[in-house]
Design goal:
heterodimer; A: Rossmann fold; Neuraminidase; 2 domains; six-stranded mixed β-sheet; four-stranded antiparallel β-sheet; 3 helices; 8% helix; B: mainly alpha; Fusion Protein Consisting Of Minor Coat Protein, Glycine Rich Linker, Tola, And A His Tag, Chain: A, Domain 2; 3 strands
Chain lengths: 430, 312
């Protein structure tokens, strides 16, 4: 990503010759991760430390593409407090920032986490925090720390302390295929199963407040849209019309669901009020119209339609109206959703080299591929817009991957077993 | 100081003189006091005269006694005669004595008169003498006073003269000193001006030399600026929070080997994160590839970086 450097030399013509100061202009930097040194946290307590916070933080930061967590084998010292820091050690590594901390057992299932972020060149602490938490919350604290670092060093909010939902397909010798609706932390850890079914489950979608999942389940022998409360596990059918009931998408205010229904014969996009289940048909076309998604301001819906012969992205007012085609580049563009700021779409494209994740930019009307693989699907933005979560194929197995929004860095999320598909990144609220 | 010392000496002399004068006046006063004491004269002593005594006798004795008496009478007569004689003699003596006494009184009177006269004369003489003396004293005093006055005047005049002379002397000395000082100053000024001229000339030459070095240094640094800029750019991770129009001006100080000694924000972007990335970029780019000619160091040890992504 290193590009042309333009340098201008300005010799200030000042009356006094001694005061002419040379100014070198820097017009371009590099797109790279900020080098950061995360020192292993000092553990004081019995046995092995209950969580490897350095690893949680480092992997989060690296996955974002905005950071480069320096390998700990290069560290010349391992400070845990401000007075132990030898700044020279970190300047030599060209680390812009240093993370130090302590993890201490303070009671039965109670731990104290201390963390400091230090600017190596200013030789100053930027922030420092102390938490008292239980063992099960320790990884979450690691994500919170990564978020704080992200905010401090990039000026943008981090999205590490968030969750994802996805479908896992497991093959069992006795029961054949099993479909699991699961949620996990943004790094794939702390996995929980919300629903376990012999029939397919599809298209999980987070409500804007992060408390309810909408999804499609075939458990009754045909497709039905369900809503399920994350905390209580309670669930309810919301749409089980004749034909297809699929692709639910929450409106930004959480009061409506857009979805695809074929109750009128052909798959069309509808908007349903959650209270009252009032339906409004949005599209009317003999082609397939599906995969609706809301713009962040709630004004528009984008959807996939093959009315032009090939699947492409269209946009329509959420109140209904005449759809306009958005994508023209490539023979296949589908499964679009908006970036949090509304300026971009993330979608699956096929430009002739396979199904890849790409960003469509409204301002430049251009599509930029983010991935290099063949079978990528179901992309969704992290709530800060900095990363995209998607499903891909790895050694004939469905896995989840996260790529930075500039495409520079992508990382597979590790899952223990099965095919993992159809992920959706949750909003900030939980 | 000298003038004040002289005046003190002068006052001491005047003091001494006045003491002398006082003593002289005191002497005169004690003399006139002796004169005013009274002199008393004693009268001469007088001579005393003794009386004669008679004795009685019996008949037989009368005869006898008569006889005796006769005798006695005779004797008495004789005695009487004698007595008378004596008395006469006495009278005579008395008279004589009286006369003598009278004479003596007369004489004493005369003498007294004479003494009185003499005394009077003496007194008169003395008075005259006293008067004369007083007059003389007065005269002397007047003379002394006159003399004193004259002396005082003389002294004053002398002092005045001396003062004047001293003043003149001082003025002369001051004038001479001033003149000398003026001459000295003029000489110093000439010398200084000469030195200044030389110094300025040397400075001008030095400046000329330095200007040349400085120009060469600027030129060299300009040639190197692409290398320096490249190194900083390669270390600059552009902030994702960047907004159009933001720039950061950073002043750097480098060592002779190009090591970044300090990098400080001269004018920030308003975005703390942008500022931070720029500072980090400059620090990470250490050592900067600056021209290593030691003559240039003075002119390239401080320079600026302007981070201006908009003009890319």
């Amino acid at each position: 990503m290193w590009s042309r450097v333009l340098i201008t030399v300005i010799l200030l013509a000042v009356a006094s010759p001694a005061r002419a100061v040379l100014t070198i202009e820097i017009n371009k930097g590099i797109e790279a991760g900020i080098p950061i040194a995360v020192v292993p946290f000092q553990w004081s307590g019995e046995g092995v430390q209950p969580a490897n916070l350095r690893e949680v933080i480092s992997l989060d930061l690296n996955r974002s593409g905005r950071f480069e967590s320096l390998p700990k084998r290069d560290f010349l010292s391992r400070p845990h407090s401000l007075t132990e820091i030898r700044f020279k050690d970190w300047r030599l590594l060209k680390a812009e920032a240093l993370v130090i901390g302590k993890l201490r057992s303070i009671g039965p299932d109670q731990f104290e986490v201390r963390f400091r972020l230090i600017d190596v060149f200013k030789q100053k602490q930027m922030v420092g925090y102390v938490w008292k938490v239980s063992r099960s919350e320790l990884r979450s604290i690691g994500h919170k720390i990564a978020d704080i670092i992200h905010k401090e060093l990039t000026g943008l909010r981090g999205a590490f302390d968030t969750r994802i939902a996805y479908i896992t397909v497991v093959k069992t010798p006795s029961q054949g295929l099993r479909y699991l609706l699961q949620i996990a932390d943004s790094d794939g850890f702390n996995e929980k199963t919300m629903l376990d079914s012999k029939e397919p489950i599809l298209s999980p979608s987070w409500s804007p407040d992060g408390r309810i999942l909408a999804y499609v389940s075939f458990e009754g022998g045909r497709s039905t849209v369900w809503l399920q409360n994350i905390k209580s596990g309670k669930r309810a059918e919301i749409a089980s019309f004749e034909g297809i009931n699929s692709a639910p998408a929450w409106s930004p205010n959480g009061k409506q669901l857009a979805m695809t229904l074929s109750r009128d014969g052909n798959p069309e996009v509808y908007v349903m009020t959650i209270l009252g289940k009032k339906l409004q048909r949005i599209t009317r076309h003999t082609a397939i119209d599906t995969e609706p998604a809301w713009s962040p301001d709630g004004r528009y819906l984008v959807f996939t339609s093959d009315r032009g012969g090939k699947p492409q992205i269209y946009r329509v007012l959420a109140s209904g109206g005449r759809p306009e085609r958005i994508t023209f580049q490539g023979k296949y563009n589908a499964g679009a959703s908006y970036s949090p700021d509304g300026s971009q779409l993330v979608l699956v494209t096929n430009q002739g080299k396979g199904y890849r994740i790409a960003i469509y930019d409204f301002a430049s009307r251009s599509i930029m591929e983010l991935t290099r693989s063949q079978l990528d699907e179901s992309p969704s933005f992290a709530p800060n817009g900095g990363m995209v979560l998607y499903a891909t194929d790895s050694q004939n197995r469905g896995v989840l991957s996260a790529v930075s929004a500039d495409g520079r860095v992508s990382n597979l999320l590790k899952f223990r077993e099965g095919d993992v598909r159809e992920p959706d990144w949750a909003p900030y609220n939980r | 100081m000298a003038g004040r010392g002289g005046r003190r000496a002068f006052l001491m002399r005047g003091g001494f003189l006045s003491v002398v004068i006082h003593l002289a006046i005191a002497g005169l006063l004690s003399i006139s006091l002796g004169w005013s004491g009274t002199v008393k004269l004693r009268p001469a002593p007088q001579k005393q005269v003794e009386p004669i005594k008679a004795i009685a006798v019996s008949e037989a004795e009368i005869q006898e006694k008569r006889n005796q008496q006769l005798e006695l009478e005779k004797k008495n007569l004789e005695l009487k005669r004698r007595q008378k004689q004596e008395e006469e003699k006495l009278e005579k003596i008395k008279k004589q004595q009286q006369a003598e006494a009278q004479h003596k009184i007369e004489q004493a009177k005369v003498k007294k008169k004479k003494a009185d006269q003499a005394l009077a004369a003496k007194k008169k003489k003395e008075e005259a003498a006293r008067k004369k003396k007083l007059a003389e004293k007065k005269e002397r005093e007047a003379a002394a006073k006159k003399k004193q006055l004259a002396e005082k005047k003389k002294r004053e005049e002398a002092a005045k003269k001396k003062q004047l002379a001293e003043k003149k002397k001082h003025e002369e000395a001051a004038r001479k000193k001033k003149l000398a000082e003026k001459k000295r100053k003029e000489a110093a000024a000439r010398k200084k001006a000469e030195a200044e001229r030389k110094r300025k000339e040397e400075l001008r030459l030095a400046q000329q030399r330095q200007e040349q070095i400085k120009n060469e240094a600027s030129e060299a640094l300009s040639r190197y600026s692409r290398l320096i800029g490249n190194k900083v750019s390669q270390n600059w991770i552009e902030p994702p929070s960047y907004k159009t129009g933001q720039t950061v001006l950073i002043k750097v100080k480098v060592s002779a080997r190009g090591e970044v000694l300090s990098a400080v924000i001269v004018r920030g972007s308003g975005d703390e994160n942008f500022d931070r990335t720029a500072i980090a970029a400059v620090n990470k780019a250490t050592p900067l590839p600056i021209p290593l000619d030691p003559r240039f160091f003075e002119y390239i040890k401080v320079f600026n970086f302007l981070f201006n992504p908009d003009s890319a």
